[in-house]
Protein 1
Amino acid sequence: MEGAKLDSLSTLELRVRSLERLLLGNDMHCHKNPTIIPTITKLATKTKEAEGSNNNLKQVYAQLGDIERFTHMCHADALEKPADVKIAYIEASEKQLQEEAKHLENVERLKWVLDSEHLRTRITSNLNVKLLQVSERQAVQKEEVSKKLTQTKQLVDNYNKAISAVSTQFEKWNTILSRLEEYQQVVKE
């Protein structure tokens, strides 16, 4: 086990020396304190950070298609408008919101009037009177409807009786005419 650790340590040392030669050249002894390992560590950290930001960019680019699809469908006309039109629209919306805020403030300021006891009793008494009038009208109309329904039933019954009587009379006349025609046929022969 010790031998394997020494071999890997010596291999690592050889790799560090070869990196130092590549970075510093053959004049390694000219530099008083070569800081290869910290420099490599910094470069590795920067590489990882760049790789991480690259992954973030990949995620953003992956979501760009969705963003374009959603914005293209419903807001395509707004995206294509020039900046001054967009600014005018925002200013108009701002003015409208300010007006709505003023109206809301007025309502809030006058809310005490709507919540006042005097107004409630007055409205309630008026509504009670109106409700009483409506219920009286409903009772009267119900009676009228009942009378009309009875009259209509009676008219329909009378009509049915008259039609039945007329039908019976036509049947009697039909039998009388049939007998008369038979009698005439017999007399002719």
Protein 2
Amino acid sequence: MRVWTRYAATAALVLTATTGCGGGSDSGGAAHARPFSEQSVGAVLKAARADMRSLKAARITGTTTGSNGQQEILDIQADRRGHCRGTITESGIGGATFLATNGKVWLKGDVAYLAEQMSSYARAESILRRMHNRWLEVDGGEIGSWCDLDHYVSSNEKLIRSHNREVKGVGEVAGEKAVLVASHKDGNQLTVWVAETSPHYFLRVALSDQAGSDLVAVSFSKFDEPLEVEAPPPSQVLRIGGSRA
């Protein structure tokens, strides 16, 4: 099944761009003696990376906007035990709900939306006729990566190598004070909101164009809140013999 590759790729690019510690950093205790908002961009991002790596669970909401104005919206909750649930919606088409636990992933959604996602799959028509509001068990694929918290904070792949990151002051996200870090590349601006108080989690990450419109915006909340996900009852699951969708 072709599953929302554009969101996964774009979100990964935006989020991994924040985790390099380029742009200068302070050493010794002097940097940490200053208020967090006055520390170097390297120190701010280093602190955010460390705290995000210790995160046990979070809610992640994201929106991508295409050149034609079409939007994809992702809303998930995930933890490091492999529990995950969420929704994906595409404007003008529809959406789907997905669950993940114990290494398995299930989804169900609007027939029109699933048909669009499964358009290249030979057995799509047969599968859709049989679903009848049941859950479809699928390979993890992109959904599995969305449920991996490290997918959003990996420092191993620096997909954007920017040398002009800078701390731009203090703002707010949902009433919480945040240090703003901005970077420019190819005419676009990447802005990261890092919680001013410890733990210094990412609160929001946005990639905007020259006009200031968000191309990608990802927000984090519900940090470390317990998450329980139950597998759908077997009677409500459609399993596909052999290769799955």
